[in-house]
Specification:
Number of helices: 8
Number of domains: 1
Helix content: 25-40%
Shape: globular
Radius of gyration: 17 Å
Strand content: 15-25%
Largest sheet: 7 strands, mixed
């Protein structure tokens, strides 16, 4: 089955306290975006959409010599209107058929392993789910979207700002790595609204819409270390140390 990816790399990353786009910050000798793309290298991808925004030219130029560069189409998100909006822009740059699989992932997730991403895609294909989400269990879920389940089925992902106290206590969180059937994804992105605490188009709302339509959404647990994103300089230093240890970098 044809496989495509949308990599979200448009954010400024204000918590990094830097004028440099977040995905261009470096850890263990490579940019966060470079490490994130490395997780895609062993997949048999047909195409990749790289969604850029802040310092768009620099972010696009940073992947020009990457192994995956021939597959990459760079597309601009000129306004930061949310992850759903960014995904729609990325999807528009890909030539997909309704039954193709589309991975959506952030460009600031340097610890995700290629083998894990491959297993995630394989699980999605075998499950027959319309969408799959990689999840992790954390002791402190503050800041993450919470995964609401009914047994093996995912019912919704609730963002921190919109969570009730009961939902906020859920320890299973969204890693922001997804797999979708392209046709279902495209149709539901067109229906996204902004009636939420941040006034943005949430990609996570697609999960709830699929579940409400009785479509199967699968969860795929991943190791907490691999699920770590980078949002500030402290997390950048932590990710760098873990990457150096993993790859024997001194």
């Amino acid at each position: 089955m044809p496989l495509h990816a949308v990599v979200l790399a448009a954010g400024k990353g204000t918590r990094m306290r830097s004028d440099v786009a977040k995905v261009l910050h470096r850890a263990a000798g490579r940019s966060l975006l470079d490490w994130s793309l490395a997780a895609l290298e062993d997949l048999r991808l047909n195409s990749i959409a790289l969604v850029v925004g802040h310092q768009a030219a620099a972010v696009a130029a940073s992947v020009a010599d990457h192994e995956l560069a021939p597959l990459v189409a760079t597309v601009l998100q000129s306004e930061q209107l949310g992850t759903g909006h960014a995904t729609a822009i990325g999807l528009s740059a890909l030539r997909v058929e309704p039954d193709d699989t589309v991975i959506v992932m952030p460009g600031d997730m340097p610890l995700l392993k290629s083998a894990t991403l491959g297993a995630f895609v394989a699980h999605h294909d075998v499950s027959g789910a319309r969408a799959s989400v990689a999840t992790a269990l954390v002791d402190d879920p503050t800041g993450y979207g919470r995964v609401k389940r009914a047994g093996d089925r995912v019912l919704a992902i609730v963002e921190q700002a919109d969570a009730t106290p009961e939902e906020a206590a859920i320890r299973e969180v969204n890693t922001s790595v997804y797999a979708f059937r392209a046709g279902h994804l495209g149709a539901l992105l067109d229906r996204l609204e902004t009636a939420n605490a941040q006034g943005e188009q949430y990609l996570t709302d697609v999960i709830g819409m699929l579940a409400a339509a009785q479509e199967t959404v699968a969860a795929f647990p991943v190791d907490l270390e691999e699920a770590m994103g980078v949002n500030d300089l402290e997390q950048l230093a932590e990710a760098a140390a873990l990457l150096e240890r993993r790859h024997g970098i001194e």
